[in-house]
Amino acid sequence: MFKNIIAPVQAWLLSVGKCVGCGTPLSKGKQAKCQGGAIKITCKCGRIFIYDPKTTKYRRALFEEV
To answer: What's the pTM value of the predicted model, to 2 decimals?
Structure first.
């Protein structure tokens, strides 16, 4: 039940380009090149995201990508 409440909020934050933990814009995070042309972004709170410039969308990084 708790996941049903949190998941839509996290999806909305990612669509707006903000961190799901602290709410800061992901454009202010540390950026590093990743394979496939993607960009790995590390937020100030430590969460890691992947930005795909082709689709212009953010997503949480998988364990293999960290």
So the answer is: 0.91
